[in-house]
From TrEMBL, chains A, B, C, D:
One of its GO terms (molecular function) is dGTPase activity. It comes from the Archaea. Pfam families: HD, HD_assoc_2. InterPro entries: dGTPase-like, HD/PDEase_dom, HD_assoc_2, HD_domain. It comes from Natronorubrum halalkaliphilum. This is HD domain-containing protein. CDD domains: HDc. Residues 46-169 form the HD/PDEase domain. GO terms for biological process: dGTP catabolic process.
Length: 410, 410, 410, 410
């Protein structure tokens, strides 16, 4: 048995199949993928990686299974899935996932290919485990898939606490020890045992507060959008040797080095390295945005960008339109026991609806540009997109608008 | 200047009037008043006192004032108020406040008498401060009274973090450093500066989650109700030498010793010492309780108790009826800047309404009794109080009902 | 199984005999005995109790035994001993132990009487455990006694971390998770496994730094000496109803209330309550103290006090002579594996000798008195005790002398 | 003013020259240099960077100066030096410093060139500061140079706490708040004020325990030696375009990408990426190593390696000889006030000598090789180096030998 020291869970013991999986290149690669991508440009301490997170998820899965009385091959399948659940991530984690999905059709949790072939598959089979079944667990399928990927998964429990620890933002500090111990199965559904409505709510609230403060902080969104644009240029450059599959298999070092050395992307790369970021030219609330735009496909978004650039008479690379999807709140289906019945949290807790409403009020469409073009591009974008002008032009309202205090907000 | 080491804020520097106030008996007495009263019967580490909390509030007040650019005598008045804001507490802090209020007409923040006379008044006057003005600040009056006692006061910021630290329940872990730095005055109203809607919500949520988990944990409520009953017996005992004013001036040691030695209270005292607590015979939701009962005055409640005891044919001391007030949420009036306007949080954030609704769903009327009489008293109480029977008798539903996992819940 | 939330170890699970022992008056009483006695007069957050410490020791014992592969009745005996190891403590923990030992012949770990009779004995026997064997374990006897009370016991591992957490002084923050996991038995001796010399040293160093900063802080020593003097007066008062056995069975509340109400002790009690402490009139290094004094018996020390008082013409109660024992360092016999051999740490690590020397240089004889008599009593004491005058009179040298920065040092 | 959230110091406020320096490429580059180089291969959470450390050092310098009453241009020079003190670091911080020093003659704190020219120099001059004077402070020169680089510098105070936070090893958790507040100048020498002998010792002990556990952990040493070898091959490869100056200016991404793509280094790179590390073939104590070897110059060491490889008949790249310098302990000259005199800690505290002795007993010469050649190379190396055979061949003694428990030790 190995013991690994972790800054969040202290000592993590690694045994069985996990011990052997640890030495595979696929798992070691996660050391070089930052958990939060460009968020470290906002919170400088947030340099933690998918590797330590994967160890943490493995650790919590072991605790949960021990409490549930699950062991043997059943448990080993889940242990493997917990440790491997993020091997499908590309560089900068979620930052480029939309891009690679468009080109490859695969999200990061589609890991069948990665688990069946190669070293990982060999290790799994050596331990008498079925790679396909492990991949299904990673995809959230089956009874125990809920523990790896679902509303009450240990993935979320680890990342909230870990992101809080490394950013310094306390909102994610949930009581994971309690949550893990209170899991139970009722009719094959993973639920929180009686008396845990507040514990379920605390998980929901932690996400709801971490989201605008950390994950969707405006500077994180801007830098992510710039990285995404750079990666897209890389894939589309003439004579490029990088396709989406190659990109997906890179680690952070590969991607950064490639962006630096490619002519099509070196300027974005320089800006990211020097934190010479674009700024918000437009920052529009959901009610000010015409209906079709939120649902626009990627190509339509690109077309808007080109149109804004043309009308404003600037280089198309100076305009980035960032349209988040419509807010969703999957936790509403979290199941909790109340008075002996399984209830959905959305039924039980008025918080679910309120947090959904809060998400709507926090939603923003952004148009980003080099600082010196902010005004011109902002005005043009309002016209082109047909935004309700009130309150959407950042240059016209107070600069502090919806920013969080810390972290270099411009 | 003195420096004091605090487990929450690390080093606290004490200077000026605060340094001299520290040595007064009124402030030193706070070392012997537990911050959370009987909560330590649920969370064994929660033995922190009003003294360390008062130091913490003083510390945060100093930081806030420095950031607001306030100094001189203005600041010294606030420093004094912060350090003195809890000198009016009786033993076990809030646990007996309703009782002493009924008899003395004073809540703990009515400190005029304590500040004007005696050592404290002398120290204040020696520093050229006005005791009456300090007392007004403690009562939340005036511009800076909002900082000492109001929706955005530093009192709350300290106790949430401190109670989280000492109970081990993380929900109270707010970002007090940020909150303190983001305070501002707009037209004499204390507000959170632009971009702090989530920060304001986090404060609200922290209270909303700490409340059922810590402050109103069922075992904390039961033990508090037993203590309150014992104290009432003490005051009402024939030949007692203890009146409400004397009680109010006791510290925890005095009260415990007195309860132990008085015949009228020694049994309650034994039960509290040995944690041989009453248990819930009834635990009824707000919709199951006839309207009048929630608003019943203390004497009416006592009359219900006597009636239940008579009908169940048990000693009246075996029945405790615990009816919390109707939920309120003062934070709804917290003021935050949004797009350059001062808005009330209740206007801005859907969370406020949701948390209010959650409070309603968490509200419970309790009837407590010795374990062996639970069933008999429970049934009788349902009849006497006219409760909607469904789900109110603890003995008939799952025992885990609304309990939190940890902490000796019976 | 119960789960208890602890501010140090988070969730502690209580099962088997421990669960039933928890409800005994002897264990519940520990809630009312402060872990560090008067240290809270220096570090205001240090209000933790023997109860939470006992839970922590039980928790670490469970972890150690599970790692060592020990279970069944063997383990249950140790679990019981861990939870019960401090039931023999009197009020204020170690503060009065020398006094009660002189009168009763029992130290706090002599618990045979407490464990065999009464509720505790009944619970042990109900679980088919032998009270005598549990008491032996508490006294450090036998193979597993080393785990409860010895150089590598879990008692020390808990209190160092817990005292650091509650005082805010980080020196005690050892890696208890590692220490517990690295324990092993070699020929019935408890040792630290290969590769843990630094871990063993860290335990030693933690104690060596916590000692002068916390446990023997000058203000803690002064207040402890005052408490001890008051307790002795209480026992010796004419018409007192308190003997040493009664004293030993009190909790903190009892003792404080008794000291307040007894004429012989009310002045000391007032001083402790108001933190109107004596101050150092003399503070002498070991080399400045004539040999015989360090080894003087209690009566000889009292005689010195009376002589100083007479010569200085002050009330005898104004002079307290505080002579610590000669430094010892039991950890020197800690056993660690090095290159396959069991070695004593004192053999292996040069730190042991150095820390012993440091203890000698930190040793101080103190004479304490009311502030206004400090000068007169200091000079007289130097004469009476035959101290080498250089550097021993506090009033003549810099006041900061050997104090730690924080904490009200006078 | 900007506020940045830091996981160690919470909120760090950046003002004046520091605010403008933050945006220079030289400072932003530090985001991409890991603080502890390859230590993350042992402690997976240790991914923190020189950037956040530099912010922390700046923060502590601000606090220390404020306490010392220093402001104005004097303070601004020190603020700049604190923020810039690490801009001279090459990729992987200290890991390659010996190599680049041999080729460039510059250590990382020789920053005159970097500060005078370019953006940094411009910013400094814009703020009316002298770049040369800032560079002198970084080099530890002058009165305030002691605060930036000396026995009591804020650099050390930050990195100990930060490394503890990110590795999870608690030994570095010093009381930096106290140390910073207790600094004073006596005759232009930086000292710790009266009563801080233990505080000074705690700093010493923290380093002494972090060193073997973290900084010189055997796996950290092996991976660092492999990286150093790879970098040397890179510089010496025929047709290479990388010289030592170029290498020094790279960030971690550059170096990793270059090592991957160069034929001469791709195998080392693969091994580091996959954590397929060399293992210890020899691990010899200082007394077993012939005198001359410890002082051997780099070329002599390389010659030994070649000789071992030749005798063992293996590829020269399979042998790495790692000879640490003779232990030193600069803290022995730390100055503390004792009884009104300035004393050197080495004079005052027996711990200094003991820790020096401990360093000697921890010193190890290592010979590293691919696992399958371990035995053959180990035996040959013993012969070639003339080691006293006893206990130096890792393959012949217990594998646990001197390892720390955690962290993948092989």
């Amino acid at each position: 048995m190995k013991t690994i020291k972790d800054s969040v869970h202290d000592h993590i013991r690694i045994d069985g199949v996990a011990r052997d999986l640890l030495d595979t290149p696929a798992v070691q690669r996660l050391r070089r993928i930052r958990q939060l991508g460009t968020v470290s440009l906002v919170y400088p301490s947030a340099n933690h990686t998918r590797f330590e997170h994967s160890l943490g998820v493995y650790h919590l899965a072991c605790e949960a299974l021990a409490d549930l009385g699950v062991d043997g091959r059943q448990a080993e399948h889940v242990h493997a899935a917990a440790l491997l659940h993020d091997v499908g991530h590309g560089p900068f984690s979620h930052n480029l996932e939309a891009l690679t999905y468009r080109r490859t059709g695969r999200y990061h949790d589609d890991v069948h290919g990665l688990l069946v072939d190669g070293d990982v598959g060999d290790v799994l089979r050596d331990h008498d485990l079925d790679p396909g079944r492990v991949a299904d667990l990673v995809a959230g399928k089956g009874r125990f898939g809920q523990l790896v990927s679902g509303e009450l998964d240990v993935d979320r429990m680890d990342y909230l606490v870990r992101d809080a620890h490394h950013t310094g933002v306390p909102y994610g500090t949930i009581d994971h020890g309690r949550l893990v111990r209170e899991l139970a199965f009722v009719d094959d559904e993973l639920v929180l045992a009686e008396g845990n409505v507040q514990a379920a709510e605390s998980l929901l609230v932690a996400r709801a507060l971490m989201n605008p403060t950390v994950y969707s902080h405006s500077v994180a969104r801007i830098s992510k959008a710039m990285l995404r644009r750079a990666a897209e240029r890389l894939l589309d450059a003439p004579k490029t040797s990088v396709d989406a599959d190659t990109l997906q298999r890179m680690d952070d070092h590969d991607l950064i080095a490639t962006l630096r050395s490619s002519e099509a992307t070196s300027e974005f790369s320089r800006r990211l390295d020097q934190r010479a970021l674009y700024k918000r030219a437009v920052w529009a609330e959901i009610d000010d945005v015409p209906g079709g735009i939120i649902e626009a496909e990627h190509e339509a978004v690109r077309e808007f960008e080109r149109e804004i650039a043309a009308d404003a008479d600037v280089d198309p690379e100076c305009v980035i339109l960032d349209v988040p999807g419509r807010p969703s709140m999957t936790e509403s289906t979290t199941r909790v026991m109340v008075n002996g019945d399984v209830r959905r949290l959305g039924q039980q807790s008025p918080l679910v609806e309120a947090l959904r409403a809060a998400q709507y009020s926090q939603w923003r469409l952004g148009v980003y540009s080099p600082p010196e073009l902010r005004d011109r591009i902002g005005r043009t974008a309002v016209d082109v997109l047909g935004l309700d002008i009130e309150g959407t032009l950042v240059s016209e309202v107070r600069d502090g608008l919806d920013t969080t205090l810390d972290q270099f907000v411009d």
